[in-house]
Design a protein that fits this description.
This protein has 400 residues and is α/β, with parallel strands linked by helices. It has 16 helices and 14 strands. Strands 3-4-2-1-5-6-7-8 form an eight-stranded mixed sheet. It has a six-stranded parallel sheet with strand order 11-10-9-12-13-14, with helices on both faces.
Length: 400
């Protein structure tokens, strides 16, 4: 079987959750003997062709259909949102002729994959990674903000091409990271798979790792809280910054790529207002599965994720694998993940400051609970191995 994974972006210097999932699934599929290639746009950089760990990668120029289009707007759309045309991608897929085109994007890229599958006889599968059905109206408006007062010439092109956005309904199969989204699409499509995110426990388990030249900061504080997530309003890191102001014995590290630079500026400004800048560090993105990322987990006393909506929460699996006590929002699929593993984490409702504080205080003061939670978390993480998840995905391909 030949599988083409198609992503909106694949930048090893600026990594996100979708890239991490696709990369690990592709590696597991290749290890099982499947021929796999990755296709992406050139968003955030990367060579047109390369090979990493035996996986061929091709990137194509992304054309965002807005006028005027300056460098600043392109950089914003590269990081989040976008919906580009990708010249050359359809032809490359037709030439390689995969048995399965697995698209990990929506919009125009997804429609291109569906239409290419129809032309070549390949099965087209679309993965929903972001819980788009659960995005609040205010956040959806924020995503559209950069393109306001610009001419959307892409709609005219779609009209000429006869595109009608049959996404994801027009795909042969739909894969959902979130259970909520899977339940939704099962009412509208006959072939839906819930496939949670996974974790390589061996990369995070074991003793703390010393990293030469690490960006780890030595903040002298008795209680170190870590959040690994995109710097993005969806992840609500502002709730954690506010918690710094209420908890003087706490320090906070926000590790992850910056998808909304204006939000990062807001976090830093609020930290200055609260007088907690000395206890806050935002070191940026770290390569997934790297020794430096593992060191971040091992240096933490607690892991906190305050997302306002979340299809799953892959960083929770990493924290569990690393033996870090977890406090997490019960939003969407994240809440279902916590409910499936009672005792492995403390949940709190989104926007519940008192609940967040109570969770962090219990982690800091209840040694017996911490020990039990760490054991339960390690056991939970072992249930989400990439090899088993890739096997379920391959079986789903075969059922279409």
């Amino acid at each position: 079987m030949k599988i083409a994974h198609v992503l909106r972006r694949l930048s090893f210097a600026d990594w996100g959750g979708t890239e991490q999932v696709v990369w690990n699934l592709a590696k597991a599929q290749r290890a099982a003997g499947t021929e796999v290639r990755l296709f992406a746009t050139d968003a955030l950089g990367g060579p047109a062709e390369e090979e990493r760990e035996g996986l061929p990668i091709r990137r194509f120029h992304a054309v965002y259909p807005w006028w005027p289009m300056g460098r600043e707007l392109k950089a914003l759309l590269d990081r989040k949102g976008g919906n580009p045309f990708v010249p050359g991608l359809g032809r490359a897929l037709r030439e390689w002729a995969p048995d399965v085109i697995h698209c990990h994007a929506m919009g125009r890229i997804a429609e291109l994959c569906i239409r290419t599958g129809e032309r070549t006889g390949a099965k087209c599968v679309i993965s929903l990674h972001g819980g788009a059905a659960n995005v609040p109206a205010a956040e959806a408006a924020d995503l559209r903000a950069p393109t306001r007062r610009r001419v959307p010439w892409g709609k005219a092109v779609e009209l000429v091409l006869g595109w009608n956005r049959r996404v994801p309904e027009g795909a042969d199969g739909i894969v959902c990271v979130g259970e909520d989204e899977a339940d939704h699409w099962r009412q509208r499509h006959p072939h839906v798979l819930w496939l949670p995110n996974g974790v390589d426990t061996a990369r995070f388990d074991g003793k703390p790792i010393a990293v030469a030249g690490s960006r780890l900061l030595s903040i002298a504080n008795p209680f170190r809280v870590l959040c690994v997530a995109r710097i993005d309003r969806q992840k609500d890191q502002m709730a954690l910054v506010e918690a710094l102001g209420r908890n003087p014995g706490m320090s906070l590290r926000l590790v992850g790529p910056v998808t909304q630079p204006d939000y990062k500026a807001e976090l830093e400004a609020r930290a200055r207002e609260l007088g907690v800048s000395g206890r806050l560090a935002i070191p940026g993105a770290l390569p997934p599965g790297s020794a430096e990322l593992a060191a971040e987990y091992h240096a933490a006393d607690a892991f906190a994720l305050a997302s306002r909506h979340e299809p799953f929460g892959i960083a929770v699996l990493e924290a569990w694998a690393a033996g870090v006590p977890v406090a997490a929002s019960t939003a969407g699929g994240l809440g279902r993940l916590l409910a499936a593993h009672p005792g492995a984490a403390i949940g709190f409702a989104p926007d519940d400051a008192a609940g967040l504080d109570a969770a962090l205080r219990r982690i800091a003061t209840d040694a017996a609970w911490r020990a039990a939670a760490v054991a339960a978390g390690r056991a939970a993480a072992r249930e989400y191995g990439w090899g088993a998840l890739a096997g379920k995905l391959d079986a789903f391909y075969g059922s279409l």
